[in-house]
Amino acid sequence: EAGVAQSPRYKIIEKRQSVAFWCNPISGHATLYWYQQILGQGPKLLIQFQNNGVVDDSQLPKDRFSAERLKGVDSTLKIQPAKLEDSAVYLCASSLLSPGFWSYNEQFFGPGTRLTVL
Amino acid sequence: SQQGEEDPQALSIQEGENATMNCSYKTSINNLQWYRQNSGRGLVHLILIRSNEREKHSGRLRVTLDTSKKSSSLLITASQAADTASYFCATDANAGGTSYGKLTFGQGTILTVHP
User: In 3-state terms, what secondary structure has residue A10?
Assistant: First the structure.
């Protein structure tokens, strides 16, 4: 079974530039997540999609970050303009989600995109 | 903000020894999960324990959950050099009895297993 694909793997940009990341989840996974992981910390959820609708974007800095998931499959995350503190690994994950109290939510992660903002 | 707090932050042991990592959290949960991250394989799911479970095993892994103390522990028995990685607990909060699959990760424990 193919895993979660992400590209690019590495990106170096200067502050105030824009950048976009792409994610292709595991086939059939309705739920897609974008996380930001700063060095030495655990991943922090930025946005969660269920099919092509947003479930949670409470921690997404909406003045500079945007994300979309067209047709409920692939997703892109964009930063415009980038700041130095955006340097991090951006992880995409997907899962099967059955709503309800006993739902099961193992998430499958992609390899991530390491962003360096100079 | 991070919900889970792992302890210790770093752990160094010899191959064959057991490793125990602890996680504390603050709010009511639906389930708690442990993940491993290393440079070779990225972030990988290890085990999930639901709020109505107290202990779970998977191979050399044993997870316990104490909801009264809002804490969990991960035990790796007979550790191997390949277990060297960062280990994260992640909580799926219980929002009125429903899980929305939103995980909140802790800061992680860095485990080093010396051959």
Answer: strand
